[in-house]
Amino acid sequence: MSRRLRTLMAALCALPLAFAAAPSAHAADPTTMTSGFYVDPDSSAKRWVAANPGDGRAAAINASIANTPMARWFGSWSGTIGTATGAYVGAADQRDKLPLLVAYNIYNRDYCGGHSAGGAASPSAYANWIAQFAGGIAGRPAIVILEPDSLGDYGCMTQAQIDEREAMLTGALTEFNRQAPNTWVYMDAGNPRWADAATMARRLHEAGLRQAHGFSLNVSNYITTAENTAYGNAVNNELATRYGYTKPFVVDTSRNGNGTNGQWCNPSGRRIGTPTRTGGGAEMLLWIKTPGESDGNCGVGTGSTAGQFLPEVAYKMIYGY
Question: Residue 155's pLDDT is what?
Fold first, then answer.
């Protein structure tokens, strides 16, 4: 338990019973339970820098990328998932920092794109996996991005598959609300180039957005913060008009410093964006994708696999060439 959380609990215990029994404001805002975002000590960028101290690119990558707070992605590669998420948020909690996690293991993941295909073996396997994911976090503060790409592209899916996917996401939100009360969960909503605002609002709502804290935009993409903010506001306008509520949203700014050139898979000439912070029209600007990690076997990452750290790509992204 973090120092701030221990102090909070002691203070609550000293209050009159009627007041202490009221819902804690901290339960709705993990950012107030911590002293800033957690820097992953075992990110792919950190590991590369540690293994290549004599490389001429190492100092720049370490200063501009490896020491910036960014999300850790969890999937089938993470081993026993509850143990993995528990260890990660526990390490952050010991330092009084707020960890960013990505759940990326939904059944039929990236079904239409294919570069990151995989995921759980069945809907029931996913339900078990995500329940353990949430259980590992438990009551510690965290931010979770739920299943990037899952609502962005339905182009090759049948209605039965769409219904199945939306049910998996709704079930995931139920588990986080049940087991991880101090976690903000953002359902991924793709990016402005994928689906119009009305379509995305409907998909989010049908997948259970009302149970989530908010939605995320631009994960692993390159579109400007301004365009994403306008899109997020448009999605919220549709949510308000159709369903009577709005939600906060976050934008992945890790690789959008030069905007997009129309390509999404390892394009050249991109640049790191605004480091993790609050504000900018969105609730938060986050580094969700690690700059320098490949999108797949494409573009300037030809011959690589999705998630592989490419130091030359990372180095060029620092300077925008």
Answer: 87
